[in-house]
Each structure stands twice: as C-alpha cells, then as structure tokens.
Design goal:
Layout: H1 3-15, H2 18-25, H3 29-43, E1 48-51, E2 54-57, H4 59-84, E3 92-98, H5 102-115, E4 120-126, H6 128-136, E5 142-146, E6 155-170, H7 183-187, E7 190-193, H8 199-210, E8 216-220, H9 224-232, E9 238-241, E10 250-254, E11 261-269, H10 276-285
Parallel strand pairs: 3-4, 3-5, 7-8
Antiparallel strand pairs: 1-2, 5-11, 6-9, 6-10, 6-11
Helix pairs in contact: 1-2, 1-3, 1-4, 2-3, 5-10
C-alpha cells in the first residue's frame, strides 16, 4: 500500500468521479483506475460501487477513508517536521480568523510577515462554525475565535484575551453619549447583526432568551465594514466585540451584564504537529 494510492483514493472519494479525480490529480483515468483497483485487491474489499460512469463509496470504503486520511496527515506532519529543521527559512502557516479579530490580527500579521518574510501565510476569515468545521478537516494550523461552549477532547484551547460586547451606533446618534446600555434597551432598537452561523449572533440570541427578550433583528450581514456603513446612517445599530470597533464614525457602548465579556481563544488540533512558525505566531499573539 502506497501513500500515492491513498491520495488517489481520497480524491476519488471527494469528487465521486474517476474522470474528474484523474484530472484534478493530473494523471490519466486509466492510471487512477488501475491504482485504486490494486488498492482494493490488497485490501480484498471493493472501496467503490461502480454504476456506469457513476461511483459511490461502499461501506468498507467509508470506514477505510478515515484511516487513509489519518495516514496522509501523519505523513504530511513528518514532512513538516523535517522542513522545520530549516530554521523558518521556508514553510506555510494557514490560519482561520473570525471577523471580529481582523483589526488586532492584522497588526500581528504585519509583524510576523516582516520578521519571517520567507514563510507563506494564508488567512481565511469566517464564522466560528465554519472555521471549526474546516479545522477538523485539517485545513488550518489554528483558528482564532470566540469559545465558551463545551471543549472537544481532540482540540487544544489556549485563551488569548477577553473582549467586551458593545452596542455599535453612529457617532452622531443620540445614543452615542451613553456610557453603558442594558439588554432591555438594546431589545427595543433596530439592529443589523453578523450573519447566522457566527458565534456573535448565537451569543446574543441566547443572552436575550435568558431574559425573555426578543431582539429586533432587521438585517444579517457577514461583513463588518458593511455593518459599519449601515450603522453610520443612524437608522440601525449593531452588536460586536470591542475588538472590532476602529471606525471614527461609530461608537461602541458597553452592554450591561456580567456575561457580556467573551473569551477569544486559539484553537488547534491536539494531535497535529505544531510547526515552529506556528509557535512563533502564538508568541506574537500572546503579546496582544
């Protein structure tokens, strides 16, 4: 059994089409079919049901795919371990970041890229739900996100900082002079919130629900700069962490309540190998 065969099998599993899988792997379809057939012969079970040009995974194929993915990931981690011996002269760091962290994260990103110019950095912004799903698929080295829920045993959690939740309103709004605001007051205001799937909207739905309040959510938008533009009109408000607010035309008003502080964490896969570059990034984040 070869790693190459496992890669071919996983690509065919992903696309469920030998022709498309061969094209994605830049090999001929006959080569792909032959390698998968050899793998099936070695395992003595069929991995795919072949129905004309269509393929579907068999039950053994579904079970085997988990172990095939683990083998590929472990082999990749071995390669990363060897690359790390080159003293950060090469490599790649892939990071998932919630939208609320974009301002603070950008500062660390510039600092890291300046200090280690040969390290390629890939950053993906998304909701907590999306980032966690992709982390579990080994798409990221780590993610930065809010987390107050139960902890999964296969993940490693490192507390980064605490963030206050604030009502964001236009700087010319009558509310802009307030030093704090209650959830009851917020419930009576028209708000535009981050898109469903973000931890912020879930957090406030839970917070309002605990007090039997129903918020007046008029819009859901998955882009903070756009939320700010809506807020600047003075007709709507939004709710974000204070780490998100850096626009001079908006004001963040702290929301009353002991539960209005949230924890931003660094989350990674517990068993995954941590590259030296990732550890250096952690060190810089710890200085925030």
């Amino acid at each position: 059994m070869e790693l190459r065969q496992l890669k071919y099998f996983l690509k065919a599993k992903e696309l469920l089409n030998f022709t498309e899988a061969a094209r994605a792997l830049n090999i001929s379809q006959s080569t792909l079919s032959q390698q998968i057939k050899q793998l099936e012969d070695e395992l003595t079970v069929p991995l795919f049901n072949r129905i004309g040009k269509r393929i579907t995974l068999t039950e053994p194929g579904k079970l085997f795919s988990e172990y095939a993915m683990q083998s590929i990931n472990r082999a990749n981690e071995g390669l990363l371990l060897l690359q790390d011996l080159k003293n950060l002269n090469m490599g790649k760091v892939t990071i998932g970041v919630i939208y609320s962290m974009r301002i603070l994260f950008a500062k660390i990103l510039v600092q890291f890229a300046s200090q280690y110019p040969n390290i390629k950095i890939q950053v993906v912004f998304g909701t907590t739900k999306d980032l966690l799903e992709r982390l579990n698929l080994h798409h990221f080295d780590f993610i930065l996100t809010f987390h107050e829920e139960l902890r999964e045993p296969h993940l490693k959690y490192q507390t980064l900082l605490k963030a206050n939740m604030v009502l964001v309103t236009g700087s010319k709004s009558p509310l802009s002079q307030k030093t704090n605001i209650s959830l009851q007051e917020v419930a009576g205001l028209p708000v535009a919130l981050p898109f469903s799937g973000s931890s912020t909207i879930q957090f406030f739905e839970d917070s309002f629900g605990q007090k039997n309040l129903v918020p007046n959510i008029c819009m859901e938008i998955n882009d903070i700069p756009t939320l700010f533009e809506i807020v600047k009109t003075g007709h709507w408000h939004t709710i974000l962490s204070d780490t998100s607010v850096n626009d001079p035309d908006v004001v963040g008003i702290p929301i009353d309540g002991k539960n209005m502080r949230r924890t931003i964490m660094i989350i990674s896969l517990r068993e995954a190998y941590e590259k030296k570059a990732v550890k250096k990034f952690y060190e810089m984040l710890a200085e925030i």
